[in-house]
């Protein structure tokens, strides 16, 4: 592979031969090289007009066999590929590749919901299935099942869950909902994980383990395969759904609130994944609005189930949280089969009921108009109240240093917390955009000093984030490199993703 520094693919002749072969395998209309075709897949939040992250072509396979053909062609000509499902991974690079000049594998055309099992509560989806598509299919099947969703409905179930994306219902830990994968390996082989290893295996999507090592994790945030099918766990529609909020002023209150919520999550009183936001307030219609000057924090959480149990859980949650001085509580109760109630109303009620929308995208355009870019900074730490306060102070001080406001969305798990914060900038302003990206590694290093790794990052910062994982002379990276070399000997699939480079492209050669 001909890669120049800083990691751009440059072998025009090999690329030309590969494009001919892609066209022979997929048809010429499935191989796009026009400037406009490529423009659609740029990183929307990188410097406008820069070609630093541009792809050289896009191929659009329509079947598993075509995906296998794409991989074989890439191996034949040693051309790097970069896969995406819907490419809406905005803030982390969108569809744009780590290595400039890679060929994008666009899976949007493989977009069928292959199966919905209403009894066992799972669906099987292809990569192009968006949250909007899945929810529509579940409703068309009778609405007995709910899916967890992230805020925006235009992304894919597969892209989001493989990246450890998160949602806001009881099943909001999306990587944990994965129930069996079908994967095209970097050499074109095809494999199914778990009990899908048996042809016709009846428990592929029903039983969570394998006979032998569990390989699903190999394909998450990974460059070891292209996932072509994914089993996805769903929850039964609850009889009652209660959407709850609380508000308080000042960072200090985060300590008792986080400690109380940890207890409620660990004992199962609150079964979803609460969200704590600062700088985002509800407008008069209940939709989110940005108010970076506000010192108020708002938390949402939800309770689902039979009315008798849900109401008791609500009383317990409100008693525990209400005992904290200065906390204001609110809740709204819906019938589980009332999809219009939560949808008409407030953003929080919608997402916690698994109803996708697009309003967060509009919100993120507020600072600099339609082209507004944002970069998300996402360290993960333990859910201990006092530590949440000190980490918030540290992160806030890093934004102060940058001259940026601290807009935060903290995602709570029962034992940990993702400290997500967002820098906004105008991608038309090159200097301002570069300044934001350049500040990021410094922030990563500051958080590493207190033992906080980053859970997910932008293509530009994958190396710096990976470099912090230094236990035993970077054993984690060394093992990943051995796996990469074994499964992808030509290093054609997503080279550099998560800071893992194939042999020959590593910094040491
Ligand atoms: P979204 O669902 O948010 O649009 P993307 O489609 O942009 O997400 O995917 C996010 C990332 O996940 C990609 O950059 C890629 O690394 C990985 N990914 C997405 N789809 C697949 C897939 N089918 N197989 C393997 N990795 C994938």
Task: Describe the structure in your own words.
- The structure is a single chain.
- The protein has 509 residues and is of the alpha+beta class.
- Helix content is 31%, strand content 22%.
- The protein has four domains: 12-108, Uridine Diphospho-n-acetylenolpyruvylglucosamine Reductase, domain 2 (2-Layer Sandwich); 113-236, Uridine Diphospho-n-acetylenolpyruvylglucosamine Reductase, domain 3 (2-Layer Sandwich); 240-363, Vanillyl-alcohol Oxidase, Chain A, domain 3 (3-Layer(aba) Sandwich); 369-467, Vanillyl-alcohol Oxidase, Chain A, domain 3 (3-Layer(aba) Sandwich).
- Helix 11 (385-402) packs antiparallel against helix 12 (430-449).
- The model has no long low-confidence stretch (mean pLDDT 94).
- Adenosine-5'-diphosphate is lined by residues 83-89, 95, 107, 127, 155-156, 158-160, 162-163, 226-227, 494, 497.
Distance between the amino and carboxyl termini: 13 Å
SS-derived structural category: alpha+beta
Report the portion of residues in β strands. 15-25%
Roughly how much helix do the residues carry, as a percent range?
25-40%
Q: Can you identify the CATH class of the largest domain? A: Alpha Beta
Proper CATH architecture of the largest domain:
2-Layer Sandwich
CATH topology of the largest domain: Uridine Diphospho-n-acetylenolpyruvylglucosamine Reductase, domain 3
Report the mean per-residue pLDDT as an integer: 94
Tell me the number of helical segments per DSSP (H or I, 4 or more residues long).
14
Number of domains: 4
Largest sheet report: 8 strands, antiparallel
Q: Ions, cofactors, ligands: which are bound?
A: adenosine-5'-diphosphate
- The gross shape turns out to be globular
């Amino acid at each position: 592979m001909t890669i120049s520094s800083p990691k751009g693919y440059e072998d025009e002749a090999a690329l030309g031969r590969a494009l001919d072969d892609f066209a022979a395998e997929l048809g010429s209309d499935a191989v796009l090289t026009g400037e406009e075709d490529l423009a659609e897949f740029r990183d929307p939040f990188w410097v406008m007009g820069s070609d630093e992250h541009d792809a050289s072509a896009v191929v659009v396979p329509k079947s598993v066999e075509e995906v296998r053909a794409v991989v074989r062609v890439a191996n034949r000509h040693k051309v790097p590929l970069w896969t995406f499902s819907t490419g809406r991974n905005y803030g982390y690079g969108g569809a744009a590749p780590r290595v400039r000049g890679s060929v994008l594998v666009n899976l949007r055309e493989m977009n069928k919901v292959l199966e919905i099992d209403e009894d066992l509560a799972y669906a099987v989806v292809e990569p192009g299935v968006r949250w909007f598509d899945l929810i529509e299919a579940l409703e068309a099947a009778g609405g007995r099942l709910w899916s967890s969703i992230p805020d925006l409905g235009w992304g894919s179930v597969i892209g989001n869950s493989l990246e450890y994306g998160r949602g806001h219902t009881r099943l909001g830990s999306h990587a944990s909902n994965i129930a069996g994968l079908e994967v095209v390996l970097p050499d074109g082989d095809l494999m199914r994980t778990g009990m899908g290893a048996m042809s016709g295996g009846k428990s592929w999507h029903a039983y969570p383990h394998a006979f032998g090592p569990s390989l699903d994790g190999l394909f998450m945030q990974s460059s070891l395969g292209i996932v072509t099918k994914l089993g996805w766990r769903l929850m039964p529609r609850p009889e009652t759904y209660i959407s709850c909020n609380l508000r308080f002023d000042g960072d200090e209150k985060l300590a008792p609130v986080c400690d109380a919520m940890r207890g409620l999550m660990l004992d199962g009183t609150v079964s979803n994944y609460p969200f704590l936001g600062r700088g985002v307030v509800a407008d008069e219609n209940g939709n989110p609005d940005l108010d970076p000057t506000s010192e108020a924090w708002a938390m949402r959480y939800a309770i689902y189930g039979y009315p008798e149990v849900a109401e008791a859980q609500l009383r317990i949650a409100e008693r525990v949280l209400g005992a904290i001085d200065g906390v204001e509580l609110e809740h709204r109760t819906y019938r589980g089969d009332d999809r219009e109630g939560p949808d008409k109303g407030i953003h929080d009620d919608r997402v916690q009921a698994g109803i996708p929308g697009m309003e967060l995208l509009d919100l993120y355009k507020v600072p600099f108009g339609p082209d507004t870019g944002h970069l998300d900074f996402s360290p993960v730490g333990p859910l201990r109240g006092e530590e949440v306060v000190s980490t918030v102070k540290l992160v806030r001080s890093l934004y102060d240093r940058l001259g940026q406001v601290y807009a935060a969305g903290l995602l709570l798990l029962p034992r940990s917390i993702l400290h997500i914060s967002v820098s906004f900038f105008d991608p038309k302003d090159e200097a301002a955009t570069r300044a934001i990206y350049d500040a990021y590694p410094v922030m990563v290093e500051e958080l590493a000093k207190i033992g906080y790794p980053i859970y997910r990052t932008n293509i530009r910062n994958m190396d710096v984030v990976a470099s912090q994982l230094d236990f035993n002379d970077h054993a984690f990276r060394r093992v990943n490199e051995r796996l990469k070399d074994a499964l992808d000997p030509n290093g054609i699939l997503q080279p550099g993703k998560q800071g893992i480079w194939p042999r020959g492209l590593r910094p040491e050669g």
